[in-house]
């Protein structure tokens, strides 16, 4: 083997050992904060699906179990009223508290995540017409919520996650996020 080949083999083996060591790290007592963005999927024909954005924070009690809180909001999204001269829009907000479970796939930086807890969804609707009349209304729903996802640890402090969450009746959420572990 020439020197270049030996260097490449050493670099490859070192990278694999680094990823394996990173995957086996103990995250006991580790807090984290993150941001996420994606799409609310609202199962009501007249409502368009709004863009979602949010923040979250959590704490890993050990390598598998943790707790997480989050806030996710949306942009103002049009409502199809079917009436000429009537404009309506809505925004959606969710607040949640969850217990989490992470399964670290062996010899890789990839992990699966599940969460189960309680969430509150709030919707604010505003309506106006061409005559200048306007009004608004708010509604909320709360109950059991949860989600599943996949994540990747870039290093001991940085991860990305893709999640699918059930928030409330007729409302699910698909997001991609990144978080920093302290």
Protein model, in words:
The protein is built from one helix and nine strands. By secondary structure, it is mainly β. Strand 6 (110-129) and strand 7 (134-153) form a beta hairpin. The protein has one helix at residues 3-23; strands at residues 30-42, 51-60, 65-74, 77-78, 86-104, 110-129, 134-153, 158-168, 171-181. Keywords: Signal.
**What is the gyration radius calculated from CA atoms?**
22 Å
The 3D shape can be described as elongated
Strand order of the largest sheet: 1-2-3-5-6-7-8-9
Q: Report the count of strand segments.
A: 9
Let me know the average pLDDT: 86
CATH topology: Porin
- Helices, by number, come to 1
Architecture, according to CATH?
Beta Barrel
- Name the helicity range: 10-25%
CATH class: Mainly Beta
Keywords: Signal
Organism: Psychrobacter aquaticus CMS 56
InterPro entries: Beta-barrel_OMP, OMP/PagP_B-barrel
Signal peptide: 1-23
């Amino acid at each position: 083997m020439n020197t270049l080949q030996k260097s490449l083999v050493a670099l490859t083996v070192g990278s694999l050992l680094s990823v394996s060591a990173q995957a086996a790290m103990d995250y006991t007592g580790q807090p984290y904060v993150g941001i996420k963005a994606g799409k609310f999927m609202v199962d009501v024909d007249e409502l368009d699906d709004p863009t979602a954005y949010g923040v979250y924070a959590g704490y890993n009690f050990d390598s598998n179990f943790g707790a997480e809180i989050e806030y996710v909001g949306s942009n103002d999204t049009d409502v199809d009223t079917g009436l000429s001269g009537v404009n309506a829009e809505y925004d959606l907000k969710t607040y949640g508290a969850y217990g989490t479970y992470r399964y670290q796939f062996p010899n890789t930086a990839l992990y699966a995540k599940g969460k189960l807890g309680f969430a509150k969804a709030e919707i604010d609707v505003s309506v106006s017409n061409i005559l200048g009349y306007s009004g608004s209304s708010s509604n909320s729903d709360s109950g059991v919520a949860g989600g599943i996802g996949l994540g990747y640890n870039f290093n001991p402090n940085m991860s990305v996650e893709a999640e699918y969450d059930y928030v409330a009746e007729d409302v699910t959420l698909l997001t991609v996020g990144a978080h920093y572990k302290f």
